[in-house]
Amino acid sequence: MIWRRSTFFRPVERLTQLPYAVLLVLWMILAIIFATAYFALAVYAPGHGPTQLLQDEANLAVMFLDSLYYSVITATSTGYGDITPQGFSKALASAQSILSLLIWALFVTKLVSHKQEAALREVHRLTFEDVFHNIREGLYIIRKDFDHIIDDAKKHNKLNQDHWMDLVSAYRQGQTLLQEIPDFYANDDKRIYTIDHRREQLLHEAVHRTLHRLNDMLNTLSNHNIDWAEHEESMTELSSFVKTVEAVTPLWQKESPYTEAFEDIIHLNTQIQDQIKGSIDAVVDEKG
After folding, report:
1. Helix (H, G, I), strand (E, B) or coil at 110
2. Cα separation of 238 and 234, whole Å?
3. Is residue 257 pLDDT above 70, yes or no?
């Protein structure tokens, strides 16, 4: 039974793969073939030809044109009733209606499917454009938070509770933004969205500047004797942020066609990791 079904539907599956123009030409060829059949029946087997055609036997050209007209009307299921089948032409008309409607339905379905796919691709493109801009804008806001903390650390040599909460929030937001970057490359073979070289460079710069600003901020806090390693919540989120960079960068580098900026990102992240390790070791030594 499975073999029979697959054998039955295989021609239909092949039809669905045909281009629009081929389907339309196939529909027209069928109309001409059936028109020729109606014409032949009317000439050689009048008892089986469409009725109106039998009245035009004196003029074969008019007779064939009427056959073509009847064939198109049958193919479109219009059915004006001015020409009616009789005898074997009834079977031909039934077969033509089924075949023509099948091809026409495939044509319309394929056209609607193409429009839906184009609309879906556009939605995906706009969505990824929004994600791209949100990542860059979010990283910019994080850098501004780091700048405020750097300024306050230089002025007051300490951070208040709001500053620590801002740091925690910035680290968390940074993790979320960085985790979205591999999604740009996780598409199917059709590549619904591909970052061009300019956008790729902007994304690299945004991540690089954020890591550079983070490194500067940690240096500033250390230089002004602010024990940032002792704040447990911010340290937890900072460690998670660094691990996220460490996990995302290889995936990003592997899929990206533009690999020139990754060494700087990896180097900065390593520097931040060294700072974290050094600060934690210093805290342990002091408590020991």
Report:
1. helix
2. 6
3. yes
Give yes or no for a contact between 31 and 75, defined as CB atoms under 8 angstroms apart.
yes
The C-alpha atoms of residue 205 and residue 142 are separated, in whole angstroms, by 14
Give the C-alpha separation, 26 to 209, whole Å.
Answer: 60
Amino acid at 95: A
131: which residues sit within 8 A by CB, 6+ positions away? 180, 183, 184
Mean pLDDT, all residues of the chain = 83
Q: What is the DSSP string of 231-269?
A: -HHHHHHHHHHHHHHHHHHHHHHHH-S--TTHHHHHHHH
What angle do the packed helices 20-44 and 60-75 form, to 10 degrees?
130
Enumerate the domain spans of the chain.
2-86, 116-287
> Would you place residue 247 in the very low, low, confident or very high pLDDT band (cuts 50, 70, 90)?
very high
The candidate with the shortest Cα–Cα distance to 64, out of 97, 82, 42, is: 42
- In DSSP notation, 189-224 reads TT-S----HHHHHHHHHHHHHHHHHHHHHHHHHHHT
- Does position 4 have pLDDT exceeding 70, yes or no? no
| Planar angle of CA 10, 14, 20, nearest 5 degrees | 155
Alpha carbon separation from 78 to 68, 92, 206 (Å, rounded):
14, 16, 63
pLDDT of 191 strictly over 90:
no
Rg (CA), the chain: 36
The CATH classification number of 116-287 equals 1.20.58
Per-residue tokens: 51: 């009725």
Is pLDDT at 44 greater than 70 in this prediction?
A: yes
- 0.70 exceeded by the pTM? no
Per-residue tokens: 47: 């008892």
Q: Distance between terminal CA atoms of the chain?
A: 79
